[in-house]
């Protein structure tokens, strides 16, 4: 990406932050909180998710067989099934159905699949009027805008904006203003349009092979009217929507509303087995009872491949097909909350899972437009009701985009700094430099303080921004001449004769070369609690290259870490990790990078630092050896995103509380820095906008101490509050 | 052990969260109770249970014009789900679906014995039922609603209020 295209991207993001950011943030954060509240009421949330996941895995595995069965069932019910290869094929079929029905007007309920194939445009070209009857979709149709959210398509529009739109389009005598008035206005207008409709078109959230029943998850009642009133019903759905039986719908019905908009259940879950056994409502015969005469309904189920069957054969993209379009991954994503689907989205889909959909349906070019907005923070992983590893899909697609890329014209500048394993790949120079951060850190530390003076000098800053897209408003972290490993080696602590436990404190790249004080504090704290601590030289975890989609480089790093730590693991050492994103590598991502016999022992014996301290205290160690609160002291704590996904926030809070601190935690999903993301010029504004949500909460807490566990969070909070937060261990450090 | 009365109470609590009103009655007083609850003009679909009838004020087999003019619509629920406060509305050849959809207030008649505890039980019922009848049903929870216009509004395309008459 050139410096010009980075500026263009930054400008687009800035524009969306200004025009749509506020409405998107309010709505998505509301949905996200609703999700937390609603799933907490379930007796067995995890069990339901497991069940939903298993049903999808099985259904996609048996897809060809289920499609045959479904076709047979729908035909026996009196309907027709058409399997369309692509969008053009589907559109042509739908147009023919409309022509046969001599249709002038189609009324539609909300359907992402119909957005994907752009059926409205096709029908308009055949002089068929298509009316979106979902209120949000109708607003967008009037405004000629694209959805910014897969469930609440007009989430970016304010009430006032909608009022102005209605005013402009309809010039009503008594312009509606309140939400209630606007809704009633739309209901009336759309009611008239539905009355004269010839064809009703819907999507389908699920279709059961055993009965041909389709489930539609809605709230307004427009889908019911669109199906009930006209005598012809066309449903368009991706082939992946089929599930074996009616009973299989149950976990999805319980999860979809909760996961998406935070509703326990939406107003209407329609279970239609079309053609439905209900009289049509013919408003051309206003005085003939609806039950008079025979009801003769037609039903067409258009199942769309459009790249899905190829995704099914792609081991990395296959999981995308389990997606139930609930929008949890959008709502929980800090970047999405700030900027919405007009930036974080492709042709049709938006949010974290969109990378999988767009890569599979449209191609890598489309996915490349927005894929970088996934920072791998992993907050969507626990939110996803079918447990899709969304960050991994984003990483894989990024890797594929890298492979098709061309590094750029400044490659010569950094040849020695980028010793990556991306042989066949050509990630952008920006990605390569950030992906090889460990090499930079080593060099920076070896040449400190000169390197720090250099990094802060104006000409170097200009060059970094111009060539690498490192934003000049960001301050580089200072490298330290004495690394943690060197410091530990030079200490003359004699190991205790009978230590309680022996640990390797993993000297992650940030702690080792930059945030050395938190490493020293960790050593002193663990020793005070009776633990023998070693700090051997171990390579970086591979998190930076993985974040840049440089999977081969990350794998090489993982192998290096495993080689260095295996001898210790064999001797019964525990591995204690300070940087949460590195622990997430050891316990999670390495599963995909290393053979299980190497990954399993490392995952099983690695602990987050405060998790480990918590365990020691639970097993009899005393806080007496630590630095504890002196009277009433308050702490505002931001846990790291991946730490929260690993359910490890509570341990830090518990230890701090036990040490006498009154702790307030932030509910921001991510700090917005996310490794290198916030350093990139094209994302600087977005990163700061995301960070401001956190900074506001930290300021409001008015605490004596501001603490953060991750390096990125530390940098980000430092930039936002103009003072660097400390790691919790630095508060507990007996040597402070 | 969960008794029938516990299940009813749980249903009532869950439904109340959506401002759904409940009135309990007997088969004998049913027409009278419905007449008290509804607002005219009213439409409806025949109740599927023996001995249960609708008051005269309810027009069955309505015309499209009558549907559009109706304030209340009276139809039967096949099932209710206590955990969610949901009602299961089956589409019938007698026009239950339009009568429950084109009105401002949906009056639902429910037999207390048809309240099931949870979604799992409901879906066992749906499975058996649909494989036999190839029918359609709506799981309706509260009135129709939308938040698309900047705040939650009840009564989007469907009813603005739901009133359940429970037959003991």
In round numbers, the mean pLDDT of chain B is: 96
| Rg calculated over all Cα atoms of chain B | 15 Å
Portion in beta strands of chain B: 25-35%
Q: Pick out the low-confidence regions of chain B.
A: none
Uncertain regions of chain A: pLDDT < 50 for 5+ in a row? Answer: none
Helix residue percentage of chain A? 40-55%
Most residues in contact: chain pair: A-B, 72 and 53 residues
Task: Tell me the distance between the termini of chain A.
Answer: 46 Å
How many DSSP-defined strands of chain B? 12
Query: Gap between N and C termini of chain B, in Å?
Result: 20 Å
Average pLDDT taken over every residue of chain A? 94
Report the major sheet of chain B.
6 strands, parallel
Structure description:
The complex is a heterodimer of chains A (736) and B (168). Chain A contains 36 helices and 17 strands. By secondary structure, chain A is of the alpha/beta class. In chain A, helix 1 packs across helix 34, helix 2 (21-40) crosses helix 12 and helix 28 crosses helix 29. The two termini of chain A are 46 Å apart. Chain B is globular and about 45 Å long. Chains A and B meet through helix 8, helix 9, helix 10, helix 11 and helix 12 of A and helix 3, helix 4, helix 5, strand 9 and strand 10 of B.
Break the fold down into its secondary structure elements and pairings:
The complex is a heterodimer of chains A (736) and B (168).
Chain A: H1 3-19, H2 21-40, H3 45-61, H4 63-77, E1 80-84, H5 87-100, E2 105-108, H6 112-117, H7 119-125, E3 129-132, H8 135-143, H9 159-170, H10 179-195, E4 199-202, E5 206-208, E6 214-218, H11 222-228, E7 232-238, E8 242-243, H12 249-260, E9 268-272, E10 298-304, H13 308-312, H14 328-331, H15 334-339, H16 354-361, H17 364-368, H18 379-383, H19 390-403, H20 429-435, H21 437-446, H22 450-455, H23 458-468, H24 484-490, E11 501-506, H25 509-513, H26 516-528, E12 531-534, H27 543-547, H28 551-570, E13 574-577, H29 580-593, H30 596-604, E14 606-608, H31 609-618, E15 633-638, H32 641-645, H33 649-658, E16 661-665, H34 684-701, E17 705-708, H35 711-721, H36 728-732
Parallel strand pairs in A: 1-10, 2-3, 2-4, 4-7, 5-8, 7-10, 11-12, 11-13, 13-14, 15-16, 15-17
Antiparallel strand pairs in A: 5-6, 6-9
Chain B: H1 4-16, E1 21-25, H2 30-37, E2 42-44, E3 58-60, H3 64-69, E4 72-76, E5 79-81, E6 86-90, H4 96-101, E7 105-111, E8 115-116, H5 119-133, E9 137-140, E10 145-146, E11 153-154, E12 161-167
Parallel strand pairs in B: 1-12, 2-3, 2-4, 4-7, 5-8, 7-12
Antiparallel strand pairs in B: 5-6, 6-9, 10-11
């Amino acid at each position: 990406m050139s410096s010009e295209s980075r500026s263009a991207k930054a400008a687009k993001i800035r524009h969306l932050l200004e025009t749509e950011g506020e409405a998107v943030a309010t709505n998505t954060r509301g949905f996200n909180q609703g999700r937390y509240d609603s799933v907490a009421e379930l007796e067995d949330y995890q069990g339901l998710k497991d069940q939903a996941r298993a049903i999808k895995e099985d259904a996609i595995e048996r897809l060809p067989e289920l499609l045959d069965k479904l076709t047979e069932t729908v035909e026996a019910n009196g309907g027709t099934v058409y399997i369309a290869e692509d969008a053009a094929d589907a559109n042509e079929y739908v147009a023919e159905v409309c022509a046969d029905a001599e249709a002038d007007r189609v009324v539609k309920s909300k359907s992402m699949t119909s957005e994907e194939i752009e059926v409205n445009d096709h029908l308009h070209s055949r002089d068929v009027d298509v009316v979106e009857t979902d209120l949000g979709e109708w607003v967008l149709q009037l405004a000629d805008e694209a959805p910014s959210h897969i469930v609440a398509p007009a989430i970016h529009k304010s009430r006032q904006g909608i009022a102005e739109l209605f005013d402009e389009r309809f010039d009503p005598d008594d312009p509606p203003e309140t939400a209630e008035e606007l809704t009633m206005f739309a209901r009336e207008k759309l009611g008239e349009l539905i009355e004269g409709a010839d064809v009703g078109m819907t999507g389908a959230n699920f279709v059961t092979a055993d009965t041909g029943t389709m489930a539609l998850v809605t709230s307004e009642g427009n889908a019911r009217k669109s199906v009930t009133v006209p005598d012809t019903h066309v449903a368009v759905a991706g082939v992946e929507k089929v599930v074996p039986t009616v009973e299989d719908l149950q976990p999805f019905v319980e999860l979809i509303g909760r996961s998406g908009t935070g509703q326990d259940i939406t107003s209407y879950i329609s279970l239609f087995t079309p053609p439905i056994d209900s009289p049509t409502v013919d408003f051309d015969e206003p005085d003939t009872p609806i039950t008079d005469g025979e009801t003769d309904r037609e039903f067409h189920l258009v199942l769309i491949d459009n790249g899905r069957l190829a995704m099914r054969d792609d081991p990395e993209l296959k999981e995308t097909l389990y997606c139930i379009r609930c929008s949890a991954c959008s709502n929980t994503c800090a970047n999405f909350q700030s900027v919405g689907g007009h930036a974080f989205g492709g042709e049709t889909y938006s949010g974290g899972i969109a990378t999988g959909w767009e890569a599979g349906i449209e191609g890598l070019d489309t996915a490349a437009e927005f894929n970088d907005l996934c920072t791998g923070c992993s907050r969507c992983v626990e939110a996803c009701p079918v447990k899709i590893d969304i960050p991994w899909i984003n990483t894989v697609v990024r890797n594929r985009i890298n492979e098709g890329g061309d590094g750029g014209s400044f490659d010569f500048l950094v040849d020695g700094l980028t010793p990556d394993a991306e042989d066949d790949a050509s990630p952008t120079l920006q990605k390569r430099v950030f992906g090889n951060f460990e090499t930079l850190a080593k060099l920076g530390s070896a040449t400190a303080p000169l390197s720090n003076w250099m990094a802060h000098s104006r000409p170097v800053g200009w060059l970094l921004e111009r060539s690498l897209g490192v934003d000049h408003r960001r301050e580089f972290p200072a490298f330290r001449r004495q690394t943690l490993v060197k410091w530990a080696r030079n200490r003359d602590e004699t190991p205790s004769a009978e230590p309680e436990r022996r640990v390797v404190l993993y000297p992650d790249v940030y702690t080792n070369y930059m945030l050395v004080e938190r490493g020293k504090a960790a050593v002193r704290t663990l020793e005070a609690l009776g633990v023998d601590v070693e700090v051997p030289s171990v390579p970086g975890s591979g998190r930076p290259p993985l974040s840049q989609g440089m999977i081969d480089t990350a794998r090489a790093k993982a192998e290096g870490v495993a080689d260095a730590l295996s001898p210790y693991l064999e001797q019964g050492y525990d591995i204690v990790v300070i940087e949460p994103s590195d622990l997430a590598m050891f316990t999670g991502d390495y599963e995909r990078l290393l053979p299980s016999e190497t990954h399993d022992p490392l995952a099983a014996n690695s602990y987050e630092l405060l998790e480990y301290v918590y365990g020691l205290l639970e097993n009899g160690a005393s806080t007496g050896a630590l630095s504890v609160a002196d009277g009433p002291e308050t702490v505002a704590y931001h846990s790291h995103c991946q730490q929260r996904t690993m359910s490890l926030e509570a341990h830090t809070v518990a230890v701090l509380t036990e040490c006498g601190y009154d702790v307030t935690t932030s509910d921001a999903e991510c700090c917005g820095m996310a490794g290198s993301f916030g350093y990139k010029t094209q994302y600087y504004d977005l990163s700061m906008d995301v960070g401001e949500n956190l900074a506001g909460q930290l300021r409001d807490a008015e605490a004596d101490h501001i603490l953060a566990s991750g390096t990125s969070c530390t940098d980000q909070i430092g930039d936002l509050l103009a003072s660097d937060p400390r790691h919790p261990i630095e508060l507990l450090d007996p040597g402070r | 052990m969960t008794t029938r009365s516990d299940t009813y109470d749980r249903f009532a609590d869950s439904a109340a969260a959506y401002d759904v009103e409940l009135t309990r009655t007997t088969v004998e007083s049913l027409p009278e109770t419905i007449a008290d609850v509804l607002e005219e003009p009213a439409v409806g679909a025949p109740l599927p249970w023996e001995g249960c009838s609708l008051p005269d004020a309810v027009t069955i087999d309505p015309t499209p014009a009558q549907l559009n003019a109706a304030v209340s619509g009276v139809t039967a629920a096949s099932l209710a789900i206590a955990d969610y406060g949901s009602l299961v509305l089956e589409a019938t050849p007698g026009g239950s679906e339009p009568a429950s959809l084109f009105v401002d207030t949906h009056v639902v008649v429910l037999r207390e014995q048809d309240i099931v505890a949870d979604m799992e039980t409901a879906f066992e019922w749906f499975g058996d039922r649909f494989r036999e009848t190839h029918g359609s049903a709506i799981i309706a929870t509260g009135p129709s609603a939308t938040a698309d216009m900047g705040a939650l509004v009840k009564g989007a395309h469907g009813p603005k209020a739901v009133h359940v008459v429970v037959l003991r």
